[in-house]
Design a protein that fits this description.
heterodimer, A: alpha/beta, six-stranded mixed beta sheet, 17 helices, about 30% helix, globular, B: about 425 residues, mainly alpha, two-stranded antiparallel ribbon, about 75% helix, about 5% strand
């Protein structure tokens, strides 16, 4: 890949990619209003902005997903327009998606060369060459496992490396990374960043899209901020203060959120003892073992842990959606719960906001109104017609309450930004007035403004006496929001911390053992 | 808030994807083609109602299929249900005394009635906290209901069924068999394609077995001349008649069945909880389950309905062709799926409507009508039907429009 790109010794005078006055419309609505962006070899350019700011659209223009845009795109000084991602990759621009595009059943090497397999004599795949080349690529990424491992047996962080390896195997010079750390543990993030630094040394240009400010400052050289489809600010990472960055992103100064006041209530609402969940396929293995805790009325209990530690399994199991068989005892208001189906637990006042909005939260084909009403329908009679007008009024009320911005309650929910989708899903659960709310990473992949709205909502619910169990992939969020934090490690409780004992280090240490 | 604020304009609905424009335009196009080719003959009220009447029976399974496909499933057994429905109907009407259809229907209906009453009692009594008593109580009422249903049927089987009895009982057989498919799909997690494929074969076999002697035809006679003596009630012919308006026989009764089914299912889908759940399951089954939707029940219900309405189509078939035979409904599952798909309902579930299916049925109906008026042979019609299905799906994907756009952009991209 070095031979192809000759004019960038260290810091190139010319950008490898230069976008000028890029405009893009979706069915008549312009979402990018003339954006300029330059990407230099050997630098990490962070693209920041709230959801709906146009980051993904801009990346899709660059990676060939969209081809019907106006403006100029220069790649190494040449005007380009990609009709497909394959065309962009041929020019050396590769996108690494948030949801990884790997074939689980194939090996690492087979994934790296999918569609570009080296062919031996008689037209068969030359596995020896393929594996050798794959080893070379993966060695650059500090990946140590054999390349003949099937991808499905890799951890999330390793899969991410394979995805990057795929781009490198295609000799990419520009890597577009969309929220690459959203599924990674702290340690895996460290590895990823080491790899990115290494790639910088090799003159690869990286465009890094993320919501997480801490990461941006650790890895970015240049920060470009998009807001409402316009580039509002570009600066060297060192010269841009955090508060200033947030102000550029949301267009107003951010209020810091902390949950300081004491819990108002004394009553214990929920008692979990000896709770566990078996592995769905492997007998004798369990996903969750011997978890016990109590929860007071109006208390927020955080569940911390690395990916795969059982955070999600705990919440799903409590809501009757366990992957395996559950054991142990759960009491709600002194009565033992029969944990079987979500419907029954909903009638007892429980609700679960799932981790993966797209996979287990939204019904993409339905409108905002229909998504919002879905949980509350359980209380309606099957034999009486639904009152659409009442539903509309309820959605509008909820939208006002939670600061959901939408044009029309009848619009498909898929057309809302991630933050607004998440707020609709939260509102859907609030519509059944739960007493015990289970929130699985409620701010995952959403913008700063929406995060803040959700924090405010949590603190209001807490005052109103709703008990909450929440997980988060960001420990700082749990520290700010929760009254206590339960740390999980390999499906076991590794400690439970009160507010006075909260420190980032203590929790990280408990989580990673 | 003003009352009409939630109503989007037609243009808005078209662009928002709520109404799929392509099938509707396709219907207009084929209508225009019919008018251009055959003029007044095509446009006459008589011909229009005739198209509707002729296609109504085959369209009934498409209504059930719409529900099934909206949940993300498929039902390949509808043709076999029509077959079984037609055979049982003919035999129940024409036979006096115990025939194979009587032996099949008596325990079957007793079982269905019994389990329905059992389920109902259990729901009512368990809600009233009767403790452990509710299960034996439900068994008792269920058994009683089953016995009652059996006893009621005995004289009917001996003296031949009446028309209302046939309309009530035969579709129930389809309902039971459909629910059986639904049980395997929902509770045992087997793909709908596989389960209903098995059902398609088994029910067709059942139909042939009931018909006897390798699947013989059971004709319907309305007058005793030339028969063994038994005749069907005259009212059965009414199902195949046209209702007179202003002295002319105009509206086919079968069309009324079809339109009633379309309207009922439309209301069910748009106005009732059940419909919302159907869309939710097709859109994202796991999300629906986690929102408290009892996914299994809804799934069983849609397959049961599909079986019910297909067996009903079997009754109407028997009246229309004055015979019940195992060949009835052969390949109708394909026509039902074609109508649903041409209408624009997505095979992956969650998107579509029964209005779309109505449009799909009309497109296929007009196509056949026009080609018949043009005296195009049947085999060529089948080829054209295949072409229409492909074009319809292509249009809905925006395939043609998109490829033209892409081409233009590619040209632009070459000389920026």
């Amino acid at each position: 890949m070095k031979g192809k790109n000759n004019h960038n010794g260290g810091r190139a005078p010319h950008p490898v990619v230069s976008m000028k006055q890029i405009r893009k419309s979706f069915s008549g609505v312009e979402v990018l209003h003339g954006v300029d962006l330059e990407v230099h070899s050997g630098l990490v350019t962070a693209l920041m902005g709230e959801n709906g700011a146009g980051k993904s659209t801009l990346m899709n223009v660059l990676s060939g997903v969209h081809s019907d845009w106006r403006g100029t795109l220069l790649v190494r000084g040449e005007a380009s327009r990609f009709n497909s991602t394959a065309a962009a990759e041929a020019t050396g621009i590769a996108m690494i998606h948030q949801e990884l595009n790997l074939v689980p059943g194939l090996t690492v090497a087979e994934n790296l060369f999918l569609g570009r397999e080296p062919i031996g004599r008689f037209g068969s795949i030359d596995f020896a060459t393929m594996n050798r080349k794959a080893r070379q690529v993966m060695r650059r990424l500090q990946y140590t496992l054999p390349v003949t491992t099937p991808v499905e047996s890799l951890r999330m962080g390793q899969r991410q490396l394979v995805e990057i390896g795929k781009a490198l195997a295609a000799e990419a010079e520009v890597l577009l990374m969309d929220e690459p750390t959203s599924a990674l543990s702290e340690r895996e993030i460290d590895t990823l960043f080491a790899v990115i630094r290494q790639l910088k040394e090799e003159s690869v240009a990286v465009v890094y899209v993320s919501h997480r400010l801490e990461e941006i400052y650790r890895i970015a050289d240049t920060i470009a901020v998009l807001r409402d489809g316009r580039l509002v600010h570009t600066a060297a990472a060192g010269s841009l203060k955090r508060s200033e960055l947030v102000r550029h992103m949301i267009g107003r100064p951010q209020e810091r959120f902390y949950n300081h006041d004491e819990i108002r209530y004394k009553k214990t609402v929920c008692r979990v003892s000896g709770f566990g969940c078996s592995h769905p396929r492997v007998a004798r293995k369990s996903l969750l073992r011997d978890i016990s805790f109590e929860l007071r009325k109006g208390e927020i209990l955080g569940v911390a842990g690395l990916l795969g530690s059982g955070r999600t399994v705990l919440l799903e199991s409590l809501f009757g959606a366990a992957p395996g068989a559950v054991s142990g005892r759960v009491e709600l208001d002194g009565e033992e719960l029969n944990i079987k189906a979500p419907a029954a637990l909903m009638s007892r006042g429980m609700a679960l906001l799932t981790e993966d909005r797209q996979k287990t939260g939204l019904i993409p084909g339905l409108s905002v109104r229909e998504n919002y009403m879905l949980s509350a329908l359980i209380r309606k009679s099957a034999w009486v017609p639904l009152k659409i007008r009442e539903e509309l009024a309820a959605v509008k009320r909820a939208a006002g309450d939670l600061n959901i911005s939408m044009a029309d309650p009848q619009q498909p929910i898929a057309t809302l930004s991630g933050g607004n989708q998440q707020k609709v899903l939260l509102a859907k659960w609030l519509a059944i007035s739960p007493r015990l709310l289970l929130l699985d990473d409620p701010t995952r992949g959403i913008d700063v403004g929406s995060k803040h709205d959700i924090y405010l909502l949590l603190s209001r619910l807490r005052r109103e006496g709703v008990s909450i169990i929440m997980t988060s992939s960001e420990i700082s969020e749990l520290l700010a929001v929760c009254d206590r934090i339960l740390v999980l490690r390999d499906g076991c409780a590794a400690g439970i911390f009160n507010r006075t004992e909260f420190t980032r280090d203590a929790i990280l240490k408990a989580a990673s053992g | 808030m003003d009352n009409g604020s939630h109503k989007l304009s037609l243009g808005g609905r078209l662009t928002a994807g709520r109404i799929n424009a392509a099938p509707f335009l396709g219907l207009l196009a084929i209508f225009a083609a019919g008018a251009a080719l055959n003029g007044n003959m095509f446009l006459s009220l008589y011909n229009q109602l005739n198209v509707l009447g002729r296609n109504s029976i085959i369209a009934l399974p498409a209504v059930g299929m719409t529900l099934v496909i909206l949940t993300g499933g498929i039902d390949l057994s509808v043709g076999s249900m029509v077959s079984l429905g037609s055979v049982i109907t003919a035999m129940l009407l024409m036979e006096r005394g115990w025939s194979r259809s009587g032996f099949l229907m008596l325990p079957f209906l007793a079982l269905i009635t019994g389990s329905a009453v059992f389920g109902l009692t259990r729901r009512i009594t368990s809600a009233n906290h009767l403790g452990k008593l509710h299960l034996p109580l439900s068994f008792l009422t269920g058994a009683a209901a089953a016995a009652a249903a059996g006893l009621i049927m005995v004289p009917l089987i001996r003296s031949g069924f009446s028309v209302p009895a046939v309309l009530l009982c035969v579709p129930l057989a389809g309902l039971g068999l459909g629910a059986f498919s639904g049980f395997f799909i929902a509770k045992k997690n087997i793909q709908p394609f596989v389960v209903t494929l098995a059902m398609m074969s088994a029910v067709l076999g059942l139909s042939k077995t009931v018909a006897g002697s390798g699947g013989r035809i059971h004709p319907i006679y309305y007058d005793a001349a030339g028969t063994a003596g038994a005749v069907a009630p005259a009212g059965f012919a009414w199902l195949n008649s046209k209702i007179a308006f202003f002295g002319t026989e105009l509206v086919p009764v079968t069309a009324l069945f079809f339109l009633a089914a379309v309207i009922a299912v439309h209301l069910l889908l748009t106005r009732f909880r059940f419909g919302r759940y159907v869309y939710a399951i097709g859109g994202n089954e796991e999300a629906a389950r986690l929102s408290g939707v009892k996914v299994d029940r809804i799934k069983i219900a849609v397959y049961a309905f599909s079986g019910w309405i297909s067996a009903l189509a079997g009754v109407l078939y028997c009246s229309a062709y004055a015979q019940g035979k195992p060949d009835a409904g052969a390949n109708w599952e394909l026509d039902a799926i074609a109508a649903v798909v041409i209408g624009g309902t997505s095979l992956s579930g969650g998107k579509g409507s029964v209005r779309s299916t109505l449009i799909g049925v009309l497109i296929l109906g007009y196509l056949g009508n026009i080609l018949n008026l043009q005296e195009v042979p049947g085999e060529v019609q089948d080829i054209l039907k295949g072409v229409i299905i492909l074009i319809a799906v292509l249009l809905q994907k925006g395939g043609i429009v998109q490829s033209v756009k892409k081409y233009i952009h590619r040209r632009k991209g070459e000389q920026p």
